[in-house]
Design goal:
mainly beta, Immunoglobulin-like, 14-stranded mixed β-sheet, 2 domains
Length: about 375
């Protein structure tokens, strides 16, 4: 009898042990009013990732680096610009570019109600975008193998004078009113669990694979015909149409930020285009970023093989990125077209170990800034 009991216990232990690695995400991981979330973004990551790996895994992201950290503060909508447009919001976040995102945080969902900021296709005017129904950004409880489907829409009306000159020349008439019709379809699957290893520590996580298709169409209000789709008649093909984004998100019960978010190349599912990850503050020796002044950052610094440059708030134009050795001899130059922010990777493997200066110069040889970079050889 004792042997049967031991055998039954061992069988139970063997078949139940994989479950010990699984967690269920609770709403304790939700950010709430007053919380500050700190993360960093690498727009040119060199990490490898197998999107086909599911189930229990260990994901090693200890080598992630980025030039600076950013803070997202969950603030009272009463302190915002467009809070009156979102009466159900109980929090808002001021993001990069002075975009105000509005949220309704409940016991089981974080709902993105919409945002106030630049229009979604870059026509140059501020817009209030309201999602109907709201976009569900987080859920609780959430467990391995859960799946979710959702769809949301938004309409943005605007006048014909808001469209750049010449864009509407292909239309037989110029309507007074236009609107963008935005449709968002999202499929989510909790397809993994296990451990994420970061430089700041190890975390038990769930991994969520998210596939999102955003379709933006342009409609015109034409007399006697009401709203008509004119997307295919205007020269905005690069801004309108369908965009698919595949991403992987790692969540833990011990962090309110997503620990890691991988955004993939839509044409190559294992190619990571950018990664955002939880950081413990500044993760390099760089000064905090000033989003109002033209500048550039290189990381990692010291550099081994590839130097990753982040250009910030650069006026639109053609520039020369120049790298000089310590005695002032130019050793590398690259011409760039920049408008606002830009990421660039340069192979510096041929440079000798030592200290270098890099600068960004206009076509008129005006130097915007000069900074220091160190190259070391392993």
């Amino acid at each position: 009898m004792r042997q049967n009991y031991i055998f039954s216990f061992l069988i139970l232990l063997v078949f139940s042990s994989p479950l010990f690695g699984q967690i269920t995400l609770s709403n304790g991981s939700f950010p709430y009013l007053g919380d500050t979330l700190v993360s960093a973004t690498d727009n040119m990551p060199t990490i490898s990732f197998d999107s086909n790996q599911t189930g229990e895994q260990i994901w090693d992201f200890q080598d992630l680096v980025a030039p600076f950290s950013s803070e997202l503060i969950y603030d009272d909508p009463a302190n915002s610009t467009a809070g009156s447009e979102f009466p159900n919001a109980n929090a808002f976040v001021l993001a990069i570019g002075d975009v105000e995102n509005y949220y309704q945080i409940t016991g089981d969902e974080i709902l993105n109600l919409g945002y106030f900021g630049d229009d979604p296709i870059g026509l140059g005017f501020n817009a209030v975008i309201k999602f109907s129904p709201p976009v569900v950004e987080r859920r609780a409880p959430m467990s391995y193998e859960d799946s979710f489907s959702s769809e949301s829409n938004a309409l943005l009306p605007f006048a014909s004078e808001d469209i750049p000159f010449g864009i509407l020349d292909s239309l037989p008439i110029t309507p007074d009113s236009f609107r963008l019709k935005i449709n968002r379809v999202t499929e989510e699957l909790v397809d993994g669990y296990g451990t994420v290893e970061l430089a700041i520590g190890n975390f038990s996580v769930l991994k969520v694979r998210k596939e999102q298709v955003v379709t933006i169409r342009l409609e015109a209000k034409i007399p006697f015909f009401n709203w008509q789709d004119v997307t295919d008649l205007v020269g905005l093909s690069e801004l309108l149409g369908e965009t698919e984004v595949v991403s992987h998100h790692f969540y833990s019960n011990t962090a309110k930020e997503a620990l890691v978010e991988l955004f993939m190349n839509s044409e190559s599912p294992d190619d990571v285009e950018s990664v955002t990850f939880k950081s413990g503050g500044m993760i390099s020796s760089l000064d905090p970023i000033n989003w109002t002044e033209p500048s550039a950052y290189v990381y990692p610094n010291p550099v081994y093989f590839d130097a990753k440059f982040e250009f910030v708030n650069i006026p639109e134009g053609t520039y020369e990125l120049s790298i000089y050795n310590i005695v002032g001899t130019k050793v590398l130059g690259k011409q760039l077209d920049i408008s606002g922010n830009k990421s660039l990777k340069i192979d510096v493997a041929d440079l000798s170990q030592g200290t270098y200066l890099y600068s960004l110069e206009t076509k008129e040889n005006q130097r915007l800034f000069t900074k220091k970079m160190t190259v070391i050889k392993p």
